[in-house]
Write a structure and sequence with these properties.
Shape: rod-shaped
Largest sheet: 5 strands, mixed
Number of helices: 11
Strand content: 25-35%
Number of domains: 3
Radius of gyration: 44 Å
CATH topology of the largest domain: Nucleotidyltransferase, domain 5
CATH architecture of the largest domain: 2-Layer Sandwich
Length: about 400
């Protein structure tokens, strides 16, 4: 049968933890012991883990509501219990144990600060628990059947819909008050305690005019072990609900970071949009430059089909260079064009005009910046007999309009 690893919170004064190994659904003879904080996770292994927390910090009670819808009960429960509480409901966590057919809601109330403290302690131990159960919410809530379990240090009582964790000195008085104010007296009371305390508890119902049946059993075993043996997760109250449920266990850490995460998401989205816009702009400019190159080619060589204007221009110019039928100006133009064409065909340039004047080739073009213009000049002069002069360069509408004069150096 599958075992459950029960760990008692908080740690003992020496820093060690009480633990118990019990079967799923409860069993007698649970294995018990003490473990150091460093060995808790190793000892738990792959077992299902449950944290049993102090009942002094948790109120276990029952209240009637006009609905059995769990969602509506969760909304109405804080206000239904508000008069019984001393703290603001905003500071409290409410967990539903069960909803009866008559609208009775069994619930637990604990401060958020306590829940966060327990979860932080479990995280430090490296223990992943499926339930956090208070000592006074562990015993089954049986309306006609009351239970009292105690050792020399603490008493846990399940009195109908109410659960208590008390000091041994005050527990008999609380039992007496509960019997006196109960709308319906219990059909039976089960008491398990050390001898001296057992006698005090037995005397309480015995003083009633019509005492209910009492099943008394003496036991000196530690209270935590006996509670672990009675653990039935289907009947116990699990405080890990709402913001503390397993699927939302990091909610308290995540919520403060949500505004920053939202801003980061907006920034990332804006960057993506800007990248898309920039890519589209570059694509449009590339297409515009291609159209300009094709236009220059058609103006220069109107006949023929255009496939790759840059390559075709180079081929035509080589053909013209080899022809002896051109006049001197045409021959000079062809030579200059053949030498300058590879550099002028760059995608970074936008040619506006080409003309031969005074034995030199004047080129008007647009570039992205002055640096691109200087790079073009260097490329034209590299490994050639061309001399290049930048006659003008001016910024215009985010681009640089330039005019170059290209001539052959004198031999």
């Amino acid at each position: 049968m599958a075992e459950i690893f029960c760990l008692r919170l908080p740690a003992q004064a020496d820093g060690n933890y009480e633990y118990a190994l019990t079967a799923l659904g409860g069993s007698d003879g649970a294995q018990q012991g003490v473990v150091s904080s460093e060995q808790v996770a190793e000892l738990a292994g792959n077992r299902r883990c449950v944290a049993v927390v102090s009942g002094f910090d948790v109120l276990i009670t029952r209240v009637k509501l006009p609905t059995r819808s769990r969602a509506r009960v969760a909304q109405a429960l804080p206000y239904a219990l508000e008069e019984q509480l001393t703290s603001d409901i905003e500071d409290l966590h409410f967990a539903i144990r069960r909803i009866d057919s008559d609208g009775g809601v069994h619930a637990a109330v604990v401060e958020h600060a306590a829940m966060q403290r327990w979860q932080a302690e479990l995280a430090e131990l490296g223990l992943d628990v499926s339930a956090i159960v208070p000592e006074n919410g562990l015993l089954a809530a049986k309306e006609p059947h009351w239970q009292v379990i105690a050792d020399d240090n603490q008493v846990v009582m399940a009195l109908g819909g109410d659960g208590f964790a008390l000091e041994p000195a005050t527990a008999p008085i609380t039992l007496e008050a509960a019997l006196a104010t109960a709308e319906q007296p219990p059909e039976a009371i089960e008491i398990e305690a050390p001898q001296g305390l057992l006698e005090r508890f037995e005397a309480v119902p015995a003083a009633l005019p019509e005492p209910p049946p009492v099943k008394a059993q003496e036991s000196d075993r530690p209270l935590f072990v006996r509670l672990a043996e009675r653990l039935d997760l289907s009947r116990a109250v699990n405080l890990m609900q709402g913001p503390y449920a397993q699927r939302e266990r990091w909610g308290w850490l995540w919520r403060p970071l949500r505004p920053a995460a939202a801003l980061l998401g907006i920034w990332l989205l804006a960057q993506v949009v800007l990248q898309i816009v920039e890519v589209n702009q570059l694509a449009a400019e590339r297409e515009e430059l291609r159209n300009e190159i094709e236009s220059v080619y058609r103006d220069t060589f109107p006949d023929g089909r255009v496939v790759n204007p840059r390559v075709q221009m180079q081929q035509h110019l080589r053909s013209i260079q080899g022809s002896g039928e051109q006049d001197n100006d045409e021959a000079l133009l062809s030579r200059l064009l053949v030498q300058a064409a590879p550099a002028l065909a760059s995608d970074r340039l936008h040619l506006r005009s080409l003309r031969l004047r005074d034995g030199a080739l004047e080129v008007e073009l647009n570039t992205a910046d002055i640096e691109s213009l200087e790079m073009l000049r260097a490329a034209l002069e590299d490994d050639s007999d061309l001399a290049v002069e930048i006659r003008s360069a001016s910024a215009r509408e985010g681009r640089v309009a330039g005019r170059l004069v290209i001539r052959q150096e004198a031999a």
